[in-house]
Amino acid sequence: MKFNVSSTELLKGLMDISKAIPAKSALPILENFLFDLSGNILEVTASDSELTLRTEIEVDSTEEEGRIAVPARHMTDLLKELPDQPLSICTKSDSSIECRWTTGNSLLPYFPAEDYPQIKGAGEDAQAIEFPAESLVDGINKTIYATADDEIRPAMNGIFFDFDTESTTLVASDSHKLICYTTNDVKTAEKCSFILHKKPASVLKSIIAKEEGDVTVTFDSSTVVFSFGRTTMVCRLIVGKYPKYRDVIPANNANILRIDRNLFVNTVRRVAVCANKASSHIKIELKEGQMEVTAQDLGFAIAAYEKIACDYSGNDLAIGFKSTFLTEILSNMGCETVVMKFADARRAALIVPSEEEAGTEKVCGILMPIMVQ
User: What pLDDT is stored for residue 52 in this prediction?
Assistant: First the structure.
């Protein structure tokens, strides 16, 4: 293998996929990048066996094609210290790879490409869907925080992609809160779905945040492939059945609160300073035209109280919530006015954008209450 490439372009390509390199692996070969040079295109692969990232880098010239595995950490550390300049890379007969730049050179070991595990994509029966990059990133950002860490129910540890003929919904829940992000930008001929673990979801949103256009999503029963620009991400899906989330969304909560979202979230944050640090419990009391938010920690003899005007219609109600959950939901909504709908103090509250903003705000959530004195 012998080629010339811009040091900056090579570093950019490697950093885009380096998130898939494991810190330490039972398979040491996975601590390497797989270089596959064909023509003037260098295809680089990084994998931890569960998540695989692959990108294509255009090189300036190729003298000899080939495939090798290169130590990931050493290669990226070297490139970070080089200013932008032409870089000549070639393999030596002693199983080393030479990187030569204007004023010096470096020798690194390399390993046979045959030792690198074969990465399989989706099968022949896979479905392919075009997903606008902006909507995909937005959907992951606004749901991923609600995923769980549940060893007994692994399906709850990911984001559920629910494709339908009229819209697509991304869902995440940890049993205390449930968040739905719905977009009309993606429609399918028939219903289909998959569950993406939150780790690859987090990686995905970070590497396509600046991408424009569509992401091609190809998936079968066990694997999903995201393709965009010159980059491809392959990862295993969570195998399991996601709960019927639509069945738990309240439909007839008659007590309705309308309030400025920023005012609400800032009030909750101020009062929660005096909540018990272990439980983060706050109490909300609602009457026509006003809301009182209180918190206390008897162990430290501290308490906080705030009364604000609001638009509330319904029965007088006192209900408790975990403040961290409530602020998470409110902070991840983009609307100016939120609507909370309550049945009573024991059943889940529905949080949605105001009717005027329902067409632009795509997120709704439900939050389970807690018992407070």
Answer: 96
